[in-house]
DNA sequence: TCATGGAAAATATTCGAATATTCTCAGATC
DNA sequence: GATCTGAGAATATTCGAATATTTTCCATGA
Protein backbone atom coordinates (compact mmCIF):
# COMPACT_ATOMS: atom_id res chain seq x y z
CA UNK A 1 0.00 0.00 0.00
CA UNK A 2 1.55 3.30 -1.02
CA UNK A 3 1.72 5.99 1.63
CA UNK A 4 -1.01 8.61 1.32
CA UNK A 5 0.68 11.74 0.01
CA UNK A 6 -1.21 14.98 0.25
CA UNK A 7 0.86 16.40 -2.58
CA UNK A 8 1.78 14.06 -5.37
CA UNK A 9 4.53 15.24 -7.63
CA UNK A 10 5.30 13.19 -10.70
CA UNK A 11 8.64 12.23 -9.24
CA UNK A 12 7.03 10.69 -6.20
CA UNK A 13 4.43 8.87 -8.27
CA UNK A 14 7.10 7.70 -10.70
CA UNK A 15 9.08 6.23 -7.82
CA UNK A 16 5.97 4.62 -6.32
CA UNK A 17 4.85 2.97 -9.55
CA UNK A 18 8.39 1.88 -10.25
CA UNK A 19 8.67 0.26 -6.83
CA UNK A 20 5.30 -1.43 -7.35
CA UNK A 21 6.40 -2.72 -10.75
CA UNK A 22 9.56 -4.22 -9.30
CA UNK A 23 7.59 -5.62 -6.38
CA UNK A 24 5.22 -7.35 -8.79
CA UNK A 25 2.08 -5.42 -7.82
CA UNK A 26 1.33 -4.98 -11.51
CA UNK A 27 1.82 -8.16 -13.53
CA UNK A 28 3.99 -8.23 -16.66
CA UNK A 29 1.91 -7.57 -19.77
CA UNK A 30 -0.95 -6.12 -17.71
CA UNK A 31 -2.70 -3.01 -18.94
CA UNK A 32 -2.21 0.06 -16.75
CA UNK A 33 -5.47 2.02 -16.76
CA UNK A 34 -5.59 5.59 -15.65
CA UNK A 35 -8.60 5.57 -13.35
CA UNK A 36 -7.36 2.83 -11.01
CA UNK A 37 -3.86 4.30 -10.99
CA UNK A 38 -5.19 7.77 -10.15
CA UNK A 39 -7.04 6.30 -7.20
CA UNK A 40 -4.16 4.14 -6.02
CA UNK A 41 -1.59 6.90 -6.11
CA UNK A 42 -3.91 9.77 -5.29
CA UNK A 43 -2.95 11.83 -8.31
CA UNK A 44 -4.59 13.24 -11.43
CA UNK A 45 -4.24 11.77 -14.89
CA UNK A 46 -1.55 14.31 -15.80
CA UNK A 47 0.92 13.15 -13.21
CA UNK A 48 0.14 9.46 -13.83
CA UNK A 49 0.63 10.05 -17.53
CA UNK A 50 3.96 11.75 -17.03
CA UNK A 51 5.15 9.05 -14.66
CA UNK A 52 4.19 6.35 -17.17
CA UNK A 53 5.88 8.19 -20.03
CA UNK A 54 9.00 8.38 -17.91
CA UNK A 55 8.79 4.66 -17.07
CA UNK A 56 8.30 3.90 -20.76
CA UNK A 57 11.59 5.68 -21.40
CA UNK A 58 13.22 3.38 -18.89
CA UNK A 59 11.71 0.39 -20.64
CA UNK A 60 9.71 -0.85 -17.66
CA UNK A 61 6.37 -0.11 -19.30
CA UNK A 62 5.36 0.00 -22.94
CA UNK A 63 3.50 2.99 -24.38
CA UNK A 64 0.95 2.10 -27.03
CA UNK A 65 -0.22 5.37 -28.59
CA UNK A 66 -3.97 5.93 -28.36
CA UNK A 67 -4.39 2.65 -26.54
CA UNK A 68 -2.54 3.23 -23.31
CA UNK A 69 0.30 1.79 -21.30
CA UNK A 70 1.09 -1.76 -20.23
CA UNK A 71 3.67 -3.39 -18.03
CA UNK A 72 6.55 -4.69 -20.07
CA UNK A 73 6.15 -8.37 -20.74
CA UNK A 74 8.71 -10.97 -19.75
CA UNK A 75 9.88 -13.92 -21.79
CA UNK A 76 12.64 -16.48 -21.64
CA UNK A 77 13.94 -15.19 -24.95
CA UNK A 78 14.22 -11.65 -23.63
CA UNK A 79 15.81 -12.81 -20.39
CA UNK A 80 18.50 -14.62 -22.35
CA UNK A 81 19.13 -11.63 -24.58
CA UNK A 82 19.16 -9.30 -21.59
CA UNK A 83 21.61 -11.47 -19.67
CA UNK A 84 23.93 -11.92 -22.63
CA UNK A 85 23.93 -8.19 -23.31
CA UNK A 86 24.43 -7.41 -19.68
CA UNK A 87 27.40 -9.76 -19.46
CA UNK A 88 29.00 -8.13 -22.50
CA UNK A 89 28.42 -4.58 -21.28
CA UNK A 90 29.46 -5.20 -17.70
CA UNK A 91 32.55 -7.12 -18.80
CA UNK A 92 33.54 -4.15 -20.90
CA UNK A 93 32.98 -1.71 -18.05
CA UNK A 94 34.75 -3.94 -15.52
CA UNK A 95 37.78 -4.22 -17.80
CA UNK A 96 38.02 -0.46 -18.05
CA UNK A 97 37.49 -0.10 -14.32
CA UNK A 98 40.31 -2.53 -13.55
CA UNK A 99 42.50 -0.79 -16.08
CA UNK A 100 41.75 2.78 -14.97
CA UNK A 101 40.31 2.65 -11.46
CA UNK A 102 42.25 4.44 -8.75
CA UNK A 103 42.68 3.64 -5.06
CA UNK A 104 39.66 5.74 -4.15
CA UNK A 105 37.54 3.47 -6.38
CA UNK A 106 39.12 0.36 -4.87
CA UNK A 107 38.15 1.53 -1.41
CA UNK A 108 34.57 2.10 -2.47
CA UNK A 109 34.42 -1.41 -3.93
CA UNK A 110 35.78 -2.91 -0.72
CA UNK A 111 33.30 -0.87 1.30
CA UNK A 112 30.35 -1.91 -0.88
CA UNK A 113 31.39 -5.54 -0.62
CA UNK A 114 31.72 -5.31 3.13
CA UNK A 115 28.25 -3.87 3.43
CA UNK A 116 26.85 -6.63 1.20
CA UNK A 117 28.65 -9.33 3.17
CA UNK A 118 27.28 -8.07 6.47
CA UNK A 119 23.71 -7.62 5.29
CA UNK A 120 21.53 -10.70 5.87
CA UNK A 121 20.10 -12.03 2.62
CA UNK A 122 16.68 -12.79 4.06
CA UNK A 123 14.81 -10.76 6.59
CA UNK A 124 14.02 -12.28 9.98
CA UNK A 125 10.25 -12.00 9.63
CA UNK A 126 9.91 -13.45 6.11
CA UNK A 127 12.64 -16.00 5.30
CA UNK A 128 11.05 -16.82 1.93
CA UNK A 129 11.57 -13.33 0.55
CA UNK A 130 14.91 -11.68 -0.16
CA UNK A 131 15.44 -8.72 2.13
CA UNK A 132 15.07 -5.23 0.70
CA UNK A 133 18.32 -4.18 2.36
CA UNK A 134 20.20 -6.99 0.73
CA UNK A 135 18.78 -6.18 -2.73
CA UNK A 136 19.94 -2.62 -2.26
CA UNK A 137 23.43 -3.59 -1.06
CA UNK A 138 23.69 -6.12 -3.90
CA UNK A 139 22.80 -3.57 -6.58
CA UNK A 140 25.20 -1.12 -5.00
CA UNK A 141 28.09 -3.60 -5.03
CA UNK A 142 27.70 -4.34 -8.73
CA UNK A 143 27.28 -0.67 -9.59
CA UNK A 144 30.38 0.33 -7.61
CA UNK A 145 32.39 -2.41 -9.27
CA UNK A 146 31.89 -0.74 -12.66
CA UNK A 147 32.14 2.78 -11.29
CA UNK A 148 35.84 3.08 -11.93
CA UNK A 149 35.51 2.74 -15.70
CA UNK A 150 35.18 6.51 -16.06
CA UNK A 151 32.55 6.41 -18.81
CA UNK A 152 29.22 8.02 -17.85
CA UNK A 153 27.60 6.72 -21.04
CA UNK A 154 28.66 3.15 -20.39
CA UNK A 155 27.57 3.34 -16.75
CA UNK A 156 24.20 4.67 -17.80
CA UNK A 157 23.68 1.74 -20.16
CA UNK A 158 24.74 -0.71 -17.46
CA UNK A 159 22.28 0.87 -15.03
CA UNK A 160 19.43 0.44 -17.46
CA UNK A 161 20.25 -3.21 -17.96
CA UNK A 162 20.53 -3.75 -14.23
CA UNK A 163 17.07 -2.28 -13.75
CA UNK A 164 15.65 -4.59 -16.39
CA UNK A 165 17.33 -7.57 -14.74
CA UNK A 166 15.97 -6.56 -11.37
CA UNK A 167 12.50 -6.67 -12.88
CA UNK A 168 13.05 -10.33 -13.70
CA UNK A 169 14.80 -11.17 -10.48
CA UNK A 170 12.11 -9.75 -8.23
CA UNK A 171 9.33 -11.12 -10.33
CA UNK A 172 10.52 -14.64 -9.83
CA UNK A 173 11.60 -14.98 -6.23
CA UNK A 174 12.94 -18.50 -6.67
CA UNK A 175 16.47 -19.17 -5.58
CA UNK A 176 18.89 -22.02 -5.34
CA UNK A 177 19.60 -22.92 -1.70
CA UNK A 178 22.86 -24.63 -2.65
CA UNK A 179 24.24 -21.59 -4.36
CA UNK A 180 27.11 -19.77 -2.69
CA UNK A 181 26.28 -16.22 -3.75
CA UNK A 182 28.55 -14.70 -1.13
CA UNK A 183 31.43 -16.80 -2.44
CA UNK A 184 30.76 -15.64 -5.99
CA UNK A 185 30.85 -12.01 -4.91
CA UNK A 186 34.04 -12.58 -2.94
CA UNK A 187 35.62 -14.17 -6.00
CA UNK A 188 34.76 -11.23 -8.20
CA UNK A 189 36.08 -8.81 -5.56
CA UNK A 190 39.38 -10.64 -5.15
CA UNK A 191 40.08 -10.93 -8.87
CA UNK A 192 39.23 -7.25 -9.29
CA UNK A 193 41.50 -6.09 -6.48
CA UNK A 194 44.27 -8.30 -7.87
CA UNK A 195 43.70 -6.46 -11.17
CA UNK A 196 43.31 -9.83 -12.84
CA UNK A 197 41.06 -8.76 -15.69
CA UNK A 198 40.43 -12.16 -17.27
CA UNK A 199 39.60 -13.86 -13.98
CA UNK A 200 37.32 -11.03 -12.88
CA UNK A 201 35.45 -11.10 -16.16
CA UNK A 202 35.09 -14.90 -16.07
CA UNK A 203 33.68 -14.75 -12.56
CA UNK A 204 31.26 -11.95 -13.37
CA UNK A 205 30.13 -13.88 -16.42
CA UNK A 206 29.57 -17.05 -14.39
CA UNK A 207 27.72 -15.07 -11.72
CA UNK A 208 25.13 -13.77 -14.18
CA UNK A 209 24.91 -17.05 -16.10
CA UNK A 210 23.94 -18.71 -12.81
CA UNK A 211 21.18 -16.20 -12.28
CA UNK A 212 19.59 -16.93 -15.64
CA UNK A 213 19.76 -20.66 -14.96
CA UNK A 214 17.80 -20.20 -11.78
CA UNK A 215 15.17 -17.96 -13.34
CA UNK A 216 14.73 -20.15 -16.42
CA UNK A 217 12.28 -22.73 -15.04
CA UNK A 218 9.92 -20.00 -13.82
CA UNK A 219 9.75 -18.60 -17.35
CA UNK A 220 9.37 -21.90 -19.20
CA UNK A 221 5.61 -21.45 -19.54
CA UNK A 222 6.01 -17.84 -20.71
CA UNK A 223 7.53 -19.08 -24.02
CA UNK B 1 9.35 26.24 -39.85
CA UNK B 2 7.19 23.33 -38.72
CA UNK B 3 4.05 22.59 -40.72
CA UNK B 4 0.87 23.92 -39.16
CA UNK B 5 -0.97 20.91 -37.79
CA UNK B 6 -4.61 21.32 -36.93
CA UNK B 7 -4.39 18.37 -34.59
CA UNK B 8 -1.24 17.99 -32.53
CA UNK B 9 -0.75 14.62 -30.95
CA UNK B 10 2.21 14.16 -28.63
CA UNK B 11 3.83 11.84 -31.14
CA UNK B 12 3.78 14.47 -33.83
CA UNK B 13 5.07 17.15 -31.48
CA UNK B 14 7.73 14.79 -30.16
CA UNK B 15 8.94 14.16 -33.70
CA UNK B 16 8.87 17.87 -34.53
CA UNK B 17 10.84 18.94 -31.49
CA UNK B 18 13.26 16.09 -32.03
CA UNK B 19 13.85 17.14 -35.62
CA UNK B 20 14.33 20.74 -34.50
CA UNK B 21 16.81 19.67 -31.84
CA UNK B 22 18.85 17.71 -34.37
CA UNK B 23 18.59 20.58 -36.84
CA UNK B 24 19.99 22.96 -34.23
CA UNK B 25 16.89 25.16 -33.90
CA UNK B 26 17.27 24.97 -30.14
CA UNK B 27 20.85 25.47 -28.97
CA UNK B 28 22.55 22.97 -26.63
CA UNK B 29 22.10 24.00 -23.00
CA UNK B 30 19.22 26.33 -23.86
CA UNK B 31 16.16 26.44 -21.65
CA UNK B 32 12.98 25.12 -23.28
CA UNK B 33 10.09 27.24 -22.00
CA UNK B 34 6.54 26.08 -22.35
CA UNK B 35 4.85 29.21 -23.68
CA UNK B 36 7.09 29.65 -26.75
CA UNK B 37 7.00 25.93 -27.46
CA UNK B 38 3.20 25.85 -27.24
CA UNK B 39 3.04 28.64 -29.77
CA UNK B 40 5.65 27.18 -32.09
CA UNK B 41 4.11 23.71 -32.20
CA UNK B 42 0.51 24.77 -31.79
CA UNK B 43 -0.16 22.52 -28.82
CA UNK B 44 -1.11 22.83 -25.19
CA UNK B 45 1.30 22.48 -22.30
CA UNK B 46 0.23 18.88 -21.71
CA UNK B 47 1.43 17.62 -25.06
CA UNK B 48 4.60 19.71 -24.94
CA UNK B 49 5.29 18.36 -21.48
CA UNK B 50 4.79 14.76 -22.57
CA UNK B 51 6.97 15.25 -25.65
CA UNK B 52 9.74 16.75 -23.51
CA UNK B 53 9.49 13.96 -20.94
CA UNK B 54 9.83 11.48 -23.78
CA UNK B 55 12.84 13.34 -25.19
CA UNK B 56 14.37 13.42 -21.73
CA UNK B 57 14.11 9.62 -21.70
CA UNK B 58 16.04 9.57 -24.95
CA UNK B 59 18.67 11.83 -23.44
CA UNK B 60 18.24 14.68 -25.91
CA UNK B 61 16.86 17.06 -23.30
CA UNK B 62 17.44 17.26 -19.56
CA UNK B 63 14.52 17.43 -17.13
CA UNK B 64 15.15 19.59 -14.08
CA UNK B 65 12.25 18.99 -11.71
CA UNK B 66 10.35 22.18 -10.78
CA UNK B 67 12.64 24.23 -12.98
CA UNK B 68 11.87 22.94 -16.42
CA UNK B 69 13.59 21.33 -19.36
CA UNK B 70 16.73 22.28 -21.24
CA UNK B 71 18.48 21.03 -24.34
CA UNK B 72 21.24 18.60 -23.46
CA UNK B 73 24.58 20.34 -23.42
CA UNK B 74 27.50 19.29 -25.57
CA UNK B 75 31.12 19.05 -24.54
CA UNK B 76 34.32 17.64 -25.94
CA UNK B 77 34.56 15.35 -22.95
CA UNK B 78 31.11 13.89 -23.61
CA UNK B 79 31.79 13.55 -27.34
CA UNK B 80 34.90 11.52 -26.59
CA UNK B 81 33.07 9.32 -24.10
CA UNK B 82 30.17 8.90 -26.49
CA UNK B 83 32.43 7.95 -29.39
CA UNK B 84 34.48 5.50 -27.35
CA UNK B 85 31.33 3.86 -26.00
CA UNK B 86 29.78 3.77 -29.43
CA UNK B 87 32.86 2.12 -30.91
CA UNK B 88 32.82 -0.53 -28.19
CA UNK B 89 29.11 -1.26 -28.52
CA UNK B 90 29.01 -1.26 -32.30
CA UNK B 91 32.12 -3.44 -32.51
CA UNK B 92 30.41 -5.93 -30.25
CA UNK B 93 27.23 -5.91 -32.31
CA UNK B 94 29.11 -6.10 -35.61
CA UNK B 95 31.09 -9.10 -34.38
CA UNK B 96 27.88 -10.90 -33.49
CA UNK B 97 26.31 -9.88 -36.79
CA UNK B 98 29.24 -11.26 -38.78
CA UNK B 99 29.18 -14.41 -36.69
CA UNK B 100 25.41 -15.00 -36.83
CA UNK B 101 24.04 -13.00 -39.74
CA UNK B 102 22.34 -14.96 -42.51
CA UNK B 103 22.16 -14.30 -46.24
CA UNK B 104 18.97 -12.30 -45.85
CA UNK B 105 20.88 -9.89 -43.60
CA UNK B 106 23.79 -9.75 -46.04
CA UNK B 107 21.41 -8.71 -48.79
CA UNK B 108 19.96 -5.95 -46.68
CA UNK B 109 23.45 -4.65 -45.92
CA UNK B 110 24.35 -4.65 -49.61
CA UNK B 111 21.09 -2.89 -50.44
CA UNK B 112 21.60 -0.24 -47.74
CA UNK B 113 25.13 0.38 -48.96
CA UNK B 114 23.98 0.69 -52.53
CA UNK B 115 21.40 3.26 -51.55
CA UNK B 116 23.99 5.22 -49.57
CA UNK B 117 26.48 5.09 -52.45
CA UNK B 118 23.94 6.41 -54.92
CA UNK B 119 22.64 9.21 -52.72
CA UNK B 120 24.45 12.52 -53.21
CA UNK B 121 26.06 13.74 -49.98
CA UNK B 122 25.16 17.37 -50.52
CA UNK B 123 21.97 18.71 -52.00
CA UNK B 124 22.09 20.66 -55.23
CA UNK B 125 20.62 23.85 -53.80
CA UNK B 126 22.79 24.09 -50.66
CA UNK B 127 26.24 22.54 -51.14
CA UNK B 128 27.38 23.65 -47.67
CA UNK B 129 24.84 21.50 -45.88
CA UNK B 130 24.74 17.70 -45.84
CA UNK B 131 21.61 16.43 -47.60
CA UNK B 132 18.78 15.08 -45.49
CA UNK B 133 18.50 12.05 -47.79
CA UNK B 134 22.14 11.22 -47.32
CA UNK B 135 21.90 11.51 -43.52
CA UNK B 136 19.00 9.12 -43.62
CA UNK B 137 20.73 6.60 -45.90
CA UNK B 138 23.88 6.87 -43.80
CA UNK B 139 22.08 6.12 -40.56
CA UNK B 140 20.27 3.27 -42.25
CA UNK B 141 23.49 1.69 -43.51
CA UNK B 142 25.08 1.66 -40.08
CA UNK B 143 21.90 0.36 -38.46
CA UNK B 144 21.53 -2.45 -40.99
CA UNK B 145 25.15 -3.43 -40.52
CA UNK B 146 24.46 -4.30 -36.89
CA UNK B 147 21.03 -5.72 -37.58
CA UNK B 148 22.23 -9.28 -37.98
CA UNK B 149 23.47 -9.55 -34.40
CA UNK B 150 20.09 -10.85 -33.27
CA UNK B 151 20.05 -8.98 -29.96
CA UNK B 152 17.18 -6.47 -29.63
CA UNK B 153 18.66 -5.10 -26.39
CA UNK B 154 22.04 -4.46 -27.97
CA UNK B 155 20.47 -2.88 -31.05
CA UNK B 156 18.39 -0.61 -28.86
CA UNK B 157 21.50 0.61 -27.05
CA UNK B 158 23.29 1.17 -30.36
CA UNK B 159 20.33 3.16 -31.65
CA UNK B 160 20.40 5.45 -28.62
CA UNK B 161 24.09 6.11 -29.07
CA UNK B 162 23.62 6.77 -32.77
CA UNK B 163 20.96 9.37 -31.97
CA UNK B 164 23.27 11.08 -29.52
CA UNK B 165 26.05 11.10 -32.08
CA UNK B 166 23.72 12.56 -34.68
CA UNK B 167 23.03 15.41 -32.29
CA UNK B 168 26.75 16.27 -32.37
CA UNK B 169 27.18 15.63 -36.06
CA UNK B 170 24.33 17.86 -37.14
CA UNK B 171 25.15 20.54 -34.65
CA UNK B 172 28.56 21.01 -36.15
CA UNK B 173 28.23 20.83 -39.89
CA UNK B 174 31.98 21.00 -40.48
CA UNK B 175 33.50 18.34 -42.61
CA UNK B 176 36.82 17.39 -44.06
CA UNK B 177 36.83 17.80 -47.85
CA UNK B 178 39.79 15.42 -48.20
CA UNK B 179 38.03 12.62 -46.41
CA UNK B 180 36.94 9.62 -48.45
CA UNK B 181 33.78 8.73 -46.56
CA UNK B 182 32.46 6.56 -49.38
CA UNK B 183 35.71 4.60 -49.36
CA UNK B 184 35.46 4.07 -45.61
CA UNK B 185 31.95 2.71 -45.97
CA UNK B 186 33.00 0.46 -48.84
CA UNK B 187 35.86 -0.88 -46.72
CA UNK B 188 33.54 -1.72 -43.84
CA UNK B 189 31.11 -3.40 -46.24
CA UNK B 190 33.77 -5.53 -47.91
CA UNK B 191 35.34 -6.73 -44.67
CA UNK B 192 31.88 -7.55 -43.35
CA UNK B 193 30.83 -9.54 -46.41
CA UNK B 194 34.18 -11.36 -46.30
CA UNK B 195 33.29 -12.21 -42.67
CA UNK B 196 36.63 -10.80 -41.63
CA UNK B 197 35.69 -9.77 -38.12
CA UNK B 198 38.93 -8.11 -37.10
CA UNK B 199 39.22 -6.07 -40.28
CA UNK B 200 35.60 -4.98 -40.13
CA UNK B 201 35.94 -3.90 -36.53
CA UNK B 202 39.16 -2.01 -37.22
CA UNK B 203 37.55 -0.15 -40.10
CA UNK B 204 34.44 0.71 -38.13
CA UNK B 205 36.63 1.95 -35.30
CA UNK B 206 38.68 4.12 -37.65
CA UNK B 207 35.52 5.46 -39.26
CA UNK B 208 34.14 6.79 -35.98
CA UNK B 209 37.53 7.96 -34.72
CA UNK B 210 37.77 10.11 -37.85
CA UNK B 211 34.41 11.66 -37.10
CA UNK B 212 35.44 12.76 -33.63
CA UNK B 213 38.67 14.24 -35.02
CA UNK B 214 36.66 16.40 -37.38
CA UNK B 215 34.19 17.54 -34.74
CA UNK B 216 36.85 18.24 -32.12
CA UNK B 217 37.90 21.75 -33.23
CA UNK B 218 34.30 22.97 -33.20
CA UNK B 219 33.99 21.90 -29.55
CA UNK B 220 37.33 23.24 -28.32
CA UNK B 221 35.71 26.35 -26.88
CA UNK B 222 32.94 24.32 -25.21
CA UNK B 223 35.48 22.95 -22.65
C1' DT C 1 -22.60 -20.05 -37.55
C1' DC C 2 -20.08 -16.41 -38.82
C1' DA C 3 -19.23 -11.88 -40.32
C1' DT C 4 -20.64 -6.87 -40.29
C1' DG C 5 -22.25 -2.59 -38.56
C1' DG C 6 -22.93 0.64 -35.43
C1' DA C 7 -24.64 2.54 -30.98
C1' DA C 8 -23.07 2.79 -26.10
C1' DA C 9 -19.60 2.38 -22.70
C1' DA C 10 -14.99 2.59 -21.41
C1' DT C 11 -10.89 4.70 -21.95
C1' DA C 12 -7.15 7.72 -23.52
C1' DT C 13 -5.93 12.34 -24.96
C1' DT C 14 -6.05 17.20 -24.92
C1' DC C 15 -7.19 21.55 -23.22
C1' DG C 16 -7.22 25.88 -20.46
C1' DA C 17 -7.52 27.46 -16.08
C1' DA C 18 -6.13 27.21 -11.09
C1' DT C 19 -2.33 26.56 -8.21
C1' DA C 20 2.38 26.31 -6.65
C1' DT C 21 7.04 27.25 -7.35
C1' DT C 22 11.01 29.68 -8.86
C1' DC C 23 13.10 33.80 -10.50
C1' DT C 24 13.95 38.87 -10.56
C1' DC C 25 15.11 42.93 -8.75
C1' DA C 26 14.37 46.96 -6.01
C1' DG C 27 14.75 48.35 -1.35
C1' DA C 28 16.27 47.53 3.40
C1' DT C 29 19.73 46.17 6.59
C1' DC C 30 24.24 45.20 8.18
C1' DG D 1 29.53 47.56 -0.77
C1' DA D 2 27.58 43.18 0.15
C1' DT D 3 23.98 40.46 1.64
C1' DC D 4 19.34 39.70 2.84
C1' DT D 5 14.17 40.17 2.10
C1' DG D 6 10.03 40.02 0.08
C1' DA D 7 6.62 41.58 -3.35
C1' DG D 8 5.61 40.93 -8.07
C1' DA D 9 6.42 38.65 -12.42
C1' DA D 10 7.50 34.68 -14.89
C1' DT D 11 7.20 30.04 -15.14
C1' DA D 12 6.25 25.15 -14.13
C1' DT D 13 2.97 21.89 -12.24
C1' DT D 14 -1.41 20.00 -11.35
C1' DC D 15 -6.16 19.57 -11.83
C1' DG D 16 -10.80 18.27 -13.66
C1' DA D 17 -13.57 18.77 -17.41
C1' DA D 18 -14.19 18.54 -22.53
C1' DT D 19 -13.05 15.94 -26.46
C1' DA D 20 -11.55 12.10 -29.29
C1' DT D 21 -10.61 7.38 -29.75
C1' DT D 22 -10.96 2.58 -28.89
C1' DT D 23 -13.40 -1.32 -27.22
C1' DT D 24 -17.52 -3.90 -26.23
C1' DC D 25 -21.41 -6.08 -27.43
C1' DC D 26 -25.73 -6.71 -29.41
C1' DA D 27 -28.60 -6.51 -33.57
C1' DT D 28 -28.70 -7.56 -38.35
C1' DG D 29 -27.94 -10.00 -42.46
C1' DA D 30 -25.37 -13.51 -45.37
UniProtKB/TrEMBL annotation, chains A, B:
InterPro entries: GntR_C, TF_FadR/GntR_C, Tscrpt_reg_HTH_GntR, WH-like_DNA-bd_sf, WH_DNA-bd_sf. Transmembrane segments: none annotated. GO terms for molecular function: DNA binding; DNA-binding transcription factor activity. PROSITE patterns: HTH_GNTR. The keyword Protease does not apply. Residues 7-74 form the HTH gntR-type domain. It comes from the Bacteria. Keywords: DNA-binding, Transcription, Transcription regulation. CDD domains: WHTH_GntR (cd07377). This is DNA-binding transcriptional regulator, GntR family. It comes from Sinosporangium album. The lineage of its organism: Bacteria, Bacillati, Actinomycetota, Actinomycetes, Streptosporangiales.
Amino acid sequence: MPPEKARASTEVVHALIRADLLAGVHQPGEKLKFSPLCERYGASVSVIREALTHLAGEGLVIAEPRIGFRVRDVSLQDLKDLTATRIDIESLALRYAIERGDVEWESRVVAAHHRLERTPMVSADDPARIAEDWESAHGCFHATLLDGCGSPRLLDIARGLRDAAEFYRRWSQTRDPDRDVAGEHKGILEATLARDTDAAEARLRAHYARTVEILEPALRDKR
